[in-house]
Amino acid sequence: MPGFARYLVTELLGTDLGRLLRARPLDNKFAQYFMYQILRGLKYIHSAGVIHRDLKPSNLLVNENCDLKICDFGLARVQEPQMTGYVSTRYYRAPEIMLTWQRYGKMVDIWSAGCILAEMLRGKPLFPGKDHIHQFFLITEVLGNPPPEVVQKITSGNTQRVVNSLPNQEPRPLRAVFHEFDNDVISLLEQLLLFDPDKRLTAETALQHPYLAPYHDPDDEPAALEKFDWSFNDADLPIDTWKLMIYSEVLDYHSLGSAGALDLGPGIEEPTLDPTLDPTFDFLQADI
């Protein structure tokens, strides 16, 4: 309506994981709790048939209570027979996207989650490629050459020839990269950062991994009741209709109360962030 402003108000979270990581590496207990919430969110998203496709630290919002929420679904899509190749920020981009697969799926988010876990532990990206070729080279320095079953799925003949021409590269044990961390987190990384997406853990199975045992509760890790309906993308409705639909959605959300809130259960305390992490994080008024 002319002369009237329209606002869509969302919850304010004080910072994002990217800003926290630029301050300093996170203690393992924070990495563990954040990783649990990332995978809990991915379980729900994937159960609705949605792929985020741009999971990265700056798209993970965090508040002073260490609540983490996934944001920026601008590249999110329902899984389709053919998918766009150029998605996801380079450092967190799954190899099947770089290898010009056109039938990748939700496991691209699992790869990104593994890269984020590695970055939380190291304090810097695991695969900081300068371009997509350098990115792939850095991945092979850790994982070795892609196995034949992965190369066979490459849809571009040129890309397949380039990959086949690469010198033989033996995989480097992740234990050598993360030597100061315990076996559980190494084990989880090894099952997330795999060339073959069919062999990666799903979000649901990753939640059952021993590394996340302090927080895992199958009764508090919801899945979507139905697949997400993308038909609104094609809708051409009057502005008043959109306003009524948004208002109705807000009412529905508040009627749910805290049904979707994270319940850690008795005896489990969530970590709290130290406000001395960085002067810009004065809002983090919690004891550690």
UniProtKB/TrEMBL annotation:
Name the record gives this protein: mitogen-activated protein kinase
Family per record: Belongs to the protein kinase superfamily. Ser/Thr protein kinase family. MAP kinase subfamily.
Keyword GTP-binding annotated: no
Top EC group: transferase
Pfam families: Pkinase (PF00069)
SUPFAM superfamilies: Protein kinase-like (PK-like)
Entries under InterPro entries matching the protein: Kinase-like_dom_sf, MAPK, Prot_kinase_dom, Ser/Thr_kinase_AS
EC id: 2.7.11.24
Any one GO molecular-function label of the UniProt entry: ATP binding
Cofactor: Mg(2+)
Residue intervals of the Protein kinase domain: 1-212
Protein keywords: ATP-binding, Kinase, Nucleotide-binding, Serine/threonine-protein kinase, Transferase
